[in-house]
Automatic annotation (TrEMBL), chain A:
This is Purine hydroxylase alpha subunit apoprotein. It comes from Halanaerobium kushneri. SMART domains: Ald_Xan_dh_C (SM01008). The lineage of its organism: Bacteria, Bacillati, Bacillota, Clostridia, Halanaerobiales. It comes from the Bacteria. PANTHER family: XANTHINE DEHYDROGENASE (PTHR11908), XANTHINE DEHYDROGENASE SUBUNIT D-RELATED (PTHR11908:SF157). Residues 45-153 form the Aldehyde oxidase/xanthine dehydrogenase a/b hammerhead domain.
From TrEMBL, chain B:
Residues 2-265 form the Aldehyde oxidase/xanthine dehydrogenase second molybdopterin binding domain. InterPro entries: Ald_Oxase/xanthine_DH-like (IPR016208), AldOxase/xan_DH_MoCoBD2 (IPR046867), AldOxase/xan_DH_Mopterin-bd_sf (IPR037165). Pfam families: MoCoBD_2. Transmembrane segments: none annotated. It comes from the Bacteria. This is Purine hydroxylase beta subunit apoprotein. GO terms for molecular function: iron ion binding; oxidoreductase activity. The lineage of its organism: Bacteria, Bacillati, Bacillota, Clostridia, Halanaerobiales.
Automatic annotation (TrEMBL), chain C:
This is Purine hydroxylase delta subunit apoprotein. The keyword Iron-sulfur applies. Residues 1-77 form the 2Fe-2S ferredoxin-type domain. InterPro entries: 2Fe-2S-bd, 2Fe-2S-bd_dom_sf, 2Fe-2S_ferredoxin-like_sf, 2Fe-2S_ferredoxin-type, 2Fe2S_fd_BS, Beta-grasp_dom_sf, Diverse_Oxidoreductases.
């Protein structure tokens, strides 16, 4: 135990980063200079401690039994054979934790474990937490868990999900949230436009694919009633709050310590290992470790939303945008995650950095039985840009204009107004970026 | 046959959570007797470099080499809320919080310095970890000695700063005065070559110009542009998690393809630095904007090369081959 | 079963099962956590070690196959206070972001420069192509290996080896 506490102390200290910077010793200015990265030394030597690198003596290993069907009612879960595997310490199912509450970033719609009579909504839903002396034993026991289900219609497409006769994936229906944009008079402006271009765009599921999979270690400090969790999150205090409410603990009783993070890109905003770790640590009283495999990470954790974008864009004879109508339908999969924010943020950026006085837009984030979609670098606006920047190119060609000139004609300047009606009062140098990139690439009307 | 194509895209990104969300960051700075300056922030460094960014900002304000800094981050019980490392917000939010804490610390150094030297602020110089009177630079006390003396008074040489800009929630028509704290803009030109036999896109050059206010660390900004662009190109031409009937068919890195070192283009960057934002030293966030232009610029380059528009992502070699075949049959 | 191998110049004797992966042996039995697991399928390069002079995905090697092998992990290059020129180049070139791929990248760079001390940019790209990085877009990693080649050429020989 002394040895263990010594090692725990080490891990509390590891995440402090001492800056050792060569090459700027003489300088008195540090902002605007290529100061070397403070954490680089630890990372090139292998010294940096990532969640999976933390181990305690007497540590147990966790594997999660996951859904066997993307949309089904759990009828029965049989852990009797699994329990007999040598080295298994505990197998936790929903009935063992009746007080635990659902979690989630914006809407708390994710169950910690699916109970008999409840639905699994995608392949990543957790059915049981297997805790064992070794990884192998945990895996073996997990694979011996028997599950009976009643299969339901699997909804794979948000357009099917929005139909009246589609079964509800969640009690309140399949449309998680709808947002609108309205400015000016779109219908009149389209009538008066020289060219109107309408296209439908479709983006795909993408995995953020940070090099490190979700992983963590937890320890229950019984004396203080605090569960310590070493795991990555992009927002420490938000994850702490969600874990605490789920386990009905006070925030102070959940301590999250962030080791070095092996990439995130949005994927580590959601709770992953945290709640399961805490439950296992508190029940067993021993340190526990849970590391996702790459496959598990891809199936279980958030994706970039596939969004269907329908854009109708009008221009006048001189090449000025007149009206823009847009529709964003985002497949947020089985759970809301960041979806309610992603899809409408995409729509709010639907016209790109271009002045357009008349706008109409609607966005829906829709539940399906796909792996849930959440945050990824770009947050809806990357999907939106794929659509609006092709609209701009298509219109430039139809107008017989250089695509760069067409963009310059419409680009935001100081005091331009965004689709949200926000007046851009400062730091609007979009025009300069076009001019600079034309210079840099020796742009000649789009041809080299 | 190889066909050359060039495409452009210009994008914007309103950063911070915005939309009336209570988005903020708190940070603190402490000068210790043992020659350390400790910055405490919960801002997660996911590799983007917020640790280095806040050290640079604090070092600049406190006029001392970054070597003396230590950043404690990522512990709910040692740090206050810094908000999420998402929405391209940490440089702007935590950068500002640390800057304010550092400014408060600097003011405190003047305050305690003026007590120590029985003088007034304009006569005191503070630099390189030393506090002294302008007319007698040899008679100085160090920051560390000052920390000791402040400790002897039963106080700590410590400062806290926070940044909490207001935004408003859009109404039912999506309208509000200030939805996002600020916008970052980026324009990109991408040159490609398409092999019309295989449909494979060869990425040649990427030119980027970003309106980022101020680069706190230009090399790290370049790293963001290169990394973000390559993720965007992955989105544009290869990445696709295939989920059929609710089940992922390509879970794992064997069948889920991302760009490798042989796929990536050469880069040229231009940083538009007007220093005109409300971020620290005029900086704006760059993380997400660096990804967004790549897929559409690529799509526009593909059209330029072969005259086909792709409305579905990713623009894979098989889709290109199929489209070229259809084009040939129709002509 | 008992195996003997040399890791970072030190001879080790270990008891392993036929199913132990070299990756787990290095990380768990020897505490060399600089060896990372990214995919477990030999696709990402995070678990790269140099085994008998060759770049090897340690997640694919059953431990018994490493009997009598000579293995170098990132821990065998330099330390924080005495970086190997390749490690130093990664720091200076700004090639490190999240850092999870970096041990593998550093070793891939070392293996390349051992064999080809003056590589072209294209050769560097091919030399690193078995290692996935999700943060950097590779540009600064390629720069780092080119920089390391220059450094090693000036030094004349790799003194840290």
């Amino acid at each position: 135990m002394t040895d263990q506490s010594k090692r725990i102390k080490d891990y509390f200290c590891k995440h402090t980063t001492r800056c050792t910077i060569e090459g700027v010793k003489k300088s008195k200015r540090f902002v605007g200079h290529d100061v070397l990265k403070a954490d680089a030394w630890d990372k090139v030597t292998g010294d940096a401690v990532y969640p999976d690198d933390i181990s305690f003596d007497d540590m147990l290993y966790i594997k999660i039994k996951r859904a066997v069907h993307p949309h089904a009612i759990l009828k029965d879960i049989d852990i009797s054979r699994a329990k007999k595997v040598q080295g298994v310490v505990d197998i936790i199912v929903a009935e063992d934790i009746p007080d635990v509450r659902q979690f989630g970033l914006i809407i708390r719609d994710q169950p910690v474990l699916i109970a008999p009579g409840e639905k699994m909504r995608y392949m990543g839903d957790a059915l049981a937490i297997v805790v064992a002396e070794t990884k192998e034993a945990a895996k073996k026991a997990r694979d011996l868990i028997k599950v009976k289900v009643e299969e339901l219609e699997v909804i794979t497409d948000p357009f099917r999900a929005m139909e009246d006769d589609a079964p509800n994936i969640h009690p309140d229906g399949n449309i998680v949230i709808t947002h609108h944009l309205n400015r000016g008079d779109v219908d009149t402006a389209f009538k008066d436009s020289a060219i109107v271009e309408e296209n439908r765009y479709q983006t795909q599921f993408i995995d953020q694919l940070p090099m490190q999979n979700e992983a963590g270690v937890a320890l229950y400090d019984e004396r203080h009633g605090v569960v310590d969790i070493w795991a990555a999150t992009q927002w420490l205090h938000d994850t702490q709050a969600d874990v605490a409410q789920s386990l009905r603990l006070s925030k102070d009783q959940v301590r999250i310590i962030q080791p070095t993070i092996g990439g995130a890109f949005g994927k580590k905003e959601d709770v992953s290992v945290h709640i399961h770790l805490a439950i296992a640590a508190m029940r067993t009283g021993r340190p526990v470790k849970l590391c996702f495999t790459r496959e598990e990470s891809m199936i279980t954790q958030s994706k970039r939303h596939p969004i269907t974008i329908i854009n109708k864009t009008g221009v006048d004879r001189d090449g000025y945008l007149t009206a823009w109508e847009t529709k964003f339908i985002g497949d947020t999969g089985a759970y809301a995650s960041s979806g309610p924010a992603v899809v409408h943020k995409g729509m709010y950026h639907a016209t790109g950095p271009y002045n357009c006085p008349n706008l109409r837009g609607v966005s829906h984030a829709v539940y399906t039985n796909n792996t849930y979609a959440g945050a990824m670098r770009g947050f809806g606006t990357a999907q939106g840009a794929f659509a609006y920047e092709q609209q701009m190119d298509i219109l430039a060609h139809k107008l017989n204009m250089d695509p760069a000139e067409f963009r310059l004609k419409n680009i935001y300047k100081k005091d331009s107004i965004t689709p949200n009606g926000q007046q851009l009062t400062h730091s609007v140098n979009a025009e300069e970026t076009i001019k600079r990139v034309m210079e840099l690439s020796d742009w000649k009307g789009g041809r080299k | 046959m190889k066909k050359f194509g060039r495409g452009m895209a210009t994008i914007m990104f309103g950063f911070g959570y915005g939309e009336g969300f209570p988005d903020h960051s708190i940070a603190s700075i402490e000068i210790k007797e043992d020659e350390r300056i400790v910055i405490r922030t919960a801002a997660a460094d996911v590799g983007q470099g917020v640790i280095t960014t806040v050290i640079q900002i604090a070092a600049e304000i406190l006029r001392i080499n970054p070597n003396y800094f230590e950043v404690v981050q990522g512990d709910t019980h040692k740090t206050k809320n810094s908000g999420s490392t998402s929405a391209t917000r940490q440089t702007y939010f935590t950068g500002n919080a640390v800057k304010k804490a550092a400014e408060d610390m600097l003011a405190n150094l003047y305050h305690y310095g003026s007590l120590e030297f029985r003088s007034n602020h304009p006569e005191i110089a503070i630099e390189d970890g030393k506090i002294y009177m302008y007319d007698d630079p040899d008679d100085y006390i160090t920051y560390w000695e000052m920390a000791e003396r402040v400790k002897e008074r039963g106080e700590k040489l410590e400062a806290e700063g926070s940044f909490f800009p207001v935004t408003y929630s859009p109404d039912e028509n999506g309208q509000a005065d200030k939805v996002y704290v600020a916008y970052t803009f980026l324009s990109q030109v991408i040159d490609i070559e398409i092999d019309t036999d295989t449909g494979i896109i060869d990425l040649l050059d990427v030119y980027s110009a970003i309106d980022l206010g101020k680069a706190i660390n230009p090399k790290n900004v370049e790293g963001q542009i290169e990394g973000g662009t390559v993720q965007g190109l992955g989105m544009g031409m290869m990445e696709d998690q295939v989920i059929r009937n609710g089940k992922t068919l390509n879970a794992g890195m064997t069948d889920y393809l991302v760009p490798t070192s042989v796929d990536v283009p050469k880069f040229k960057h231009y940083l538009v630095e007007e220093e005109d934002s409300e971020g620290p030293f005029g900086a704006k966030g760059v993380g997400e904007p660096t990804l967004i232009a790549a897929a559409p610029a690529l799509a526009n380059a593909v059209y330029d090369a072969i005259g086909v528009r792709f409305f579905d992502l990713p623009i894979s070699p098989s889709k290109i081959k199929k489209a070229l075949k259809e084009k040939e049959e129709n002509s | 079963m008992q195996i003997t191998l040399t890791v970072n110049g030190e001879q080790r004797e270990l008891e392993v099962t036929p199913y132990t992966r070299l990756l787990d042996l290095l990380r768990e039995d020897l505490g060399l956590t600089g060896v990372k697991e990214g995919c477990g399928k030999g696709e990402c390069g995070a678990c790269t070690v140099i085994m008998n002079g060759e770049l090897t995905a340690s997640c694919l090697v059953p431990a018994p196959q490493a009997d009598q092998a000579e293995i170098i992990t990132v821990e065998g290059l330099g330390t924080r206070d005495n970086l190997h020129p390749i490690q130093e180049s990664f720091v200076e070139a700004g090639a490190v972001q999240c850092g999870y791929c970096i041990p593998g990248m550093v070793l891939a760079g070392k293996r390349l420069l051992d064999e080809n001390p003056k590589p072209t940019e294209k050769e560097v790209r091919y030399g690193l192509s078995g290692n996935i990085c999700r943060c950097t877009g590779y540009a600064k990693i390629i720069d780092a290996v080119m920089l390391a080649a220059d450094k090693l050429a000036v030094e004349g020989s790799d003194s840290n080896d």
